[in-house]
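Bench notes, afternoon.
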Amino acid sequence: MKTQKKTMLTGNKAAAWGARMAGVEYVPAFPITPQTEIVETLAKWFADGTLQGKFTNMDSEHSMFMAAGSAGATGVRVFTASSSQGILHGMESLYTITGWRTPMVIVNVSRALATPITLEPDHNDVMSTRDCGLIQLHAETCQEVFDFVLMGYRIAEDPDVCLPVLVNLDGFYLSFTREPVLIPDEEEARNFLPLYKAMQPVFQASRPMARASAVFGGATYTSFKLQQDMACRNAEKCFNQAAQDFEKYFGRFYGPVEAFHLDDAEYVFVMSNSFATKGKSAVLKLRQQGIKAGLLKLRLFRPFPGEAIASALAGHAKVAVIDQNLAPGMGGITYPEIVTSLYSREDRPEKILSVIGGLGGKDMDDQDFMAIIEHLDKPDSGTPLYLYDEKDVSSFNRLQQIAKLKEALS
């Protein structure tokens, strides 16, 4: 394992450096806050010759994803990035490129969806892609962003997978936060991730051609979808192998989930992405008060690592699944998936609480985590806990009063 250079990078710059170390050859792009810094950085590197290949500004995210999928089908290593409404605008294309089985890495910088408009993060944008067929990796730190981009290509390009990998990071909380990131030299990165050699490109760049999508009946369509499902399931094994190899080359190991003070925990928070850092801080403070708290962080979300999650939560009395998203009329999106993974186990937790917090980037503080503990100690009401208290109501009412006053004065 060679020396790695430590440098201060934002989450966005870490994503760009991951693509650079991966030796990407084509980047179709469309800017959107808070993702733009990623493609700006890559555009500069292509322009000054640091990266060899092609950078193309597209007219929309829909065109961007279609260009990415088409290029990937020719056998080049492709990277692109988006966020929020951009992901929704390109949703049709995401289903298309996963159906094409073209490997690539997509970075999503999470931002809450309209309406109303906000620039701060929650996870409804990335959760909207969960059934597309994308592999999903969720990063807590800038280091994980960089590392997951490299690992993402290993997984995506595995012959047993051949699917796009989406790496998710939180907008603003991580995208513009500078943290120390270890960057290997290019030779070492290439040892872990050789230059891309597609098995059998669908197209050849030297022979332009037009292709049309065939219209299949149900049986043939089902065959394709089942193959896609098996490929996605294969990705968990590929993730674990990539994680072992990554540790060998770079000294950092990533399991599909991360256990934090779980061994003797009576209360467990299940979280993902940058807010897991807030959760870890709360765990340490709660333990100072004699409360045995722990945290389980989700890194791999698709394929869903149900067995790893169930094993980690087995034997713990009380679990709170904290969703930074909301499916109106249902609640948190991750919660029912966690419950399903635990359903058949006799050693499942006695109580599993659904918690909705962090919507639109709303902060979570120590009082929120204490409120979760107190709720876990109450009889189960069967309803989610929403982290929205009287202080938030008062703040909202004050804004309404200001708006009415401005209207009256105008």
